[in-house]
Amino acid sequence: MANKEQDVKLLEDSTKYISDPVLQNNVVDLGKRMINHPAYGAMDYKWTTEDFDLGAALGRGKFGRVYLARERYSHFMVAMKVLFKSELKAGRVERQLLREIEIQSRLKHPNILRMYTWFHDDSKIYLVLEYASQGELYKHLKNSPHGRFSEHRSAKYTYQVASALQYCHMNDVIHRDLKPENILLTGNDQVKLADFGWSAHTQSNKRKTMCGTLDYLPPEMVEGRTYDDSVDQWCLGILCYEFLVGCPPFESDNTEMTYEKIRKLQISYPRHVSVGAKDLISKLLQKPSKNRVSLVQVMRHPWVQQNKEKNPNDTVVIEKPQNPRI
């Protein structure tokens, strides 16, 4: 059991730096309500739909719907993903979902979407997730001028995704499906790596399953070879390119043409892409995979370091959240 008195003191001490007294009081009040929740420190608390007020729909996926929700005791805002067991069974993805829950519920990093808890009833499974108010990064990419991000935003987001992936690898997790659609954005312009449906937890660091998204597949997957966690470095190189250009580098009219470009590393850069960005991307899109730079090297790369804080005013346009109707 948690020591609630000690945790309340830690909460009060940790919020002393907040200069706005109203905000400070709100944060402390919310924290105290969460600490005093019956589930706090309890391993056997049984969550149900009665613990939450469901609000506006946030999105819809192949097997589920996502809603804004508020936990009734603390008033803490979350995203509630509701999955229908019948649809999961029909799609034969029950094991994939269990693996996703097992992996994501253990990951705690500033740039990884938190899964707080999960529960189920006779017909549905409920995932209680961190609420990222600005939604998919893909939407912001497409709505940006010329359909691409600036070098500042590209470097900033690349750094944050690299940090999240490095944490995953340190915990023996390979993401395997990196793309803008699987990254969410918070109200303070921080990325949150999400969707761990294709992730693998493996201490051997060797896999052979072909999975992910066509335009992001690394050569070792395309060629049916065994691969390791360096597939995430490859995907990060594709992601960085898409940030800067607006589309992935090997995008083609059909699957076979895409495969051929991946095998041959057939890549071209528009004139606006800087030398530094090209250098980083080329060091990630390497064949064989052992030649790819590490994620730590990505975060330390001169282009990333020079650009991620270069123009703080060049940030995403934060949209005012819609009325959650709770």
Structure commentary:
- Helix 6 runs antiparallel to helix 8 (231-245).
- This protein has a 5-stranded antiparallel β-sheet with strand order 1-2-3-5-4.
- Helix content is 37%, strand content 14%.
- Mean pLDDT is 89; it is low at 315-326.
- The protein has helices spanning 4-14, 21-35, 85-90, 94-104, 137-143, 151-170, 219-222, 231-245, 255-264, 275-284, 295-300, 302-307, and strands at residues 52-60, 64-71, 77-84, 115-120, 124-129, 173-174, 183-185, 191-193, 200-201.
- The protein is globular, with a radius of gyration of 21 Å.
- It has 326 residues and is of the alpha+beta class.
Give the tags.
single chain, alpha+beta, five-stranded antiparallel sheet, two-stranded antiparallel sheet, 14% strand, disordered C terminus
- Alpha-beta content class: alpha+beta
First-residue to last-residue Cα separation: 32 Å
Number of strands: 9
Radius of gyration: 21 Å
What are the low-pLDDT stretches, counting only 5+ consecutive residues below 50?
A: 315-326
What summary fits the major beta sheet?
5 strands, antiparallel
Query: In which order are the strands of the major sheet placed?
Result: 1-2-3-5-4
